[in-house]
Amino acid sequence: MQDVYLIILGLLFILAITDLVVGVSNDAINFLNSAVGSKAVSLRSILIIASLGVAVGAIFSSGLMEVARKGIFLPQEFYFEEIMVIFMAVMLTDVLLLDFFNSLGLPTSTTVSIMFELLGAAVSIALIKIFKTTNDISNLVDFINVDKASEVIFGILLAIVIAFVAGAVVQYFSRLVLSFKYERKLKYTGAIFGGVSLAAIFYFILIKGLNSLAFVSDHFVEDVHNNRIQIIIFSLIGFTILSKVLTSFFKVNILKLIVMVGTFALALAFAGNDLVNFIGVPIAAWQSYEIWSASGVAASELLMSDLAGSVPTPEIILIFAGGVMVLTIWFSDKAKAVVDTGVKLSRQNEGSERFGANYLSRTIVRYSMMFGSAVSEVIPKKVRNRIDTQFETPKAKTTGREIAPPAFDLVRASVNLVVASILISMGTNLQLPLSTTYVTFMVAMGTSLADRAWNQESAVYRVAGVLNVIGGWFVTAFVAFLGAALFAVIIYFGGLIAIAILVCFTAFVIIRNTLSHAKKSKANKLQKKYKRTDIITINEITAESSVNISQVISGIKKRYTKTVDNLGYHDLGKLKKNNKKVGELESEVDDLKGNIYYFIKSLDEDSVEASRFYIHLLNYLQEMVNSTRYITRNSFEHVNNNHKNLKFNQIRDLKKIDKKLQELFSEIKYTFDEHDFERLDDILAEKQQLLDMVSEMIEKQIKRIRTSESSPKNTKLYFGLLLESKDLISSTLNLVQLFREFYVEAKSTL
Question: Which domains does the chain have, with CATH numbers?
């Protein structure tokens, strides 16, 4: 029996390492968002600062993993074997849940996930115990720490509202004072702004960061709490003087300093406090095992009353956990994706939006605009004009090959960090279970709203994105509770076999998601779909257009062949999947069309005529995708409606067209991949031959109708496929013709 629990412990620690990776990947938004978005320093420097904060916070953490042992459930009501079931269910759920959010690139709260998982698993096991004995569900309160669970839910709702409002208000008045042209004003106000900001971050480190460090005594923490007013006053004075000295004599950019110190502070607090979310459960399981081993009592008879005590975590485990966290920050692509979501939702400049508008976001924006118009009418015109002047954004100075400007400026980045630090410090003082993810994200959204980053062009998409993220937070709580409860039941009744199956399933999902994410990242790099501020010359237009054409042609080539093959086999599942894939092609072309504005603005004076070429090129790509969409959608609907399959002769003719198209598409793809544009004339020479072949098949179908064809639905589908194939060929060769003319003209001007 002891060997069984040792195996479970081993699995729990393997899951803990995985949880560290997926958890840190998601929580990276807490401390990287402002620094990355503002480009205060290089990405390498940001990662070094964050790594130092994480390392200090993790290594010197007190390691008191209270929440896993007694924060949510009452351990004295559970036997050792039941406790181990709860812990295994929690870790499996947490790894799967956080990896799911990482794959979507959405931030969620590791604190909320672990708490609701503990709650779900404990409730599940408690109900099993109740149904085996009294059948009185009211006894559930004897097993669960109801007050703590209620605090978590209340803290979530409160944090979302307060963080958003506080961020918006502070940013609004900061911008009124400093404006977007803040460089000159910082000469006079920089010392005060720096003093307030650094004092707030320093107090945050004292309250939230140092509170969890092992070498800090309880007496020191109590002194800080009792003398907080004096600490705030003296730190304000001290940091104001320091800021003045640094800006006046050493010419230090005080805003960059605030961002770097704030990033370190949040990383320190994150590692010191949130470490429990990743390794707290395995540590609690290990301590439970030690208690049980020393007791000599059967696993099904030992109540875990001793687990309620305070037991520090061994230093070696904290050091190892800190190392894993640091490595994850540096090498996790999913961490970058989660940070990218927060940065894009709060960026000042325009660009492609990740989230689509929905009814709720449109309604919110519509009524907000009506409210804003009503308020502006009340404000005197002179005051309104003065306010508008402070919010005027200077035109970006793009030179050379600058790819992307900062998402927002250093003023907003500083406010993000300062407001988040103050709110988390206040929440800690009031003993509210705040989530650092919720606070930092909602502060960032509030500051972006106040900065007028959500204008008429982007508001519905940004609001939709925020609603998606907030909705995801509540989904986290719901899924964490149900998932852990379900896993606990499965493990309770299935034993070691159930654990083995669930661990294998978790490993499969993690590996699959990792490979899928890597594949998507590679595809995105190949497509080079960055904002069009770097395309400025004829040669670069030619190169970029070649990439776009090759990518779309490659997608159409696959989809056309698969549609014809799957239609021949009447394979509904594969036709449905193929139809969905064409939707991804449509999104690619739509993204390219959405960036036309940036493309035209970035052209140099000698290349402006190329904008007409690029617009027509995208139009032909759109027509090609539309034809492919018609072919895939109608093929799917035909089979989905259980109509008769196409006849052998019809499928054979479609395969002939497919074969010719595959040859054409392969030749075009090779031409644009290798930039061997001399082959374009040979490709165009085949145009009439292909069109004649399709026309011949249309005539053959007309003869069939007159003699043997008896299915109107087949005829409709077949004619539709032939005509759209003809349009696809025409659009493809028109695109090649357009590119050839542009290439010849461009070549003559070089």
Answer: 1-394+410-517 (no CATH), 536-749 (1.20.58.220)
Its pTM stands at: 0.75
Rounded Cα distance between 607 and 224, Å, is 64
Spatial contact of 643 and 714, defined as CB atoms under 8 Å apart:
yes
State how far Cα 109 lies from the chain centre: 13
Kindly list the averaged pLDDT for each block of 10 residues, start to end, along the chain of length 750: 81 88 79 88 90 82 54 82 92 92 82 86 92 83 76 76 92 90 84 92 79 67 83 93 91 92 86 74 86 87 76 74 87 78 80 76 86 86 88 63 71 92 77 74 91 83 86 88 95 92 92 80 54 55 82 91 91 90 85 75 67 86 93 92 87 91 90 85 83 87 75 87 92 90 75
CA dihedral 248, 252, 254, 257 (to 10 degrees): -150
Cα dist from 480 to 91, 113, 476, 507, whole Å: 11, 6, 6, 18
Q: Residue 110 half-sphere exposure, CB side, CA atoms within 13 Å?
A: 30
pLDDT tens per residue across span 17-69 = 888 888 888 777 678 889 999 998 888 999 999 999 888 877 766 554 555 55
Picking from 38, 439, 110, the residue whose alpha carbon sits closest to that of residue 271 is: 110
pLDDT in tens, 673-692: 888 888 888 888 877 888 88
| Listed residue (84, 80, 68, 73) closest to 127, CA to CA | 73
Tell me the three state secondary structure of residue 73: strand
Please name the residues in contact with 484: beta carbons below 8 A apart, sequence gap of 6 or more.
Answer: 89, 90, 93, 116, 117, 118, 119, 120, 121, 124
**Cα–Cα distance measured from residue 725 to residue 722, given in angstroms and rounded to the nearest whole number:** 5
How many Cβ atoms from other residues are within 10 Å of residue 61's Cβ? 26
**For the chain, how many helices (H) and strands (E)?**
25, 0
Could you give the CA distance from residue 715 to residue 620 in angstroms, rounded to a whole number? Answer: 28
For residue 356, the SS3 value is: coil
Residues shown for the chain: 750
- Whole-angstrom CA distances from 476 to 16, 18, 23, 427, 469 are 19, 18, 13, 22, 10
Question: Residue 357 gets which letter from DSSP?
Answer: P
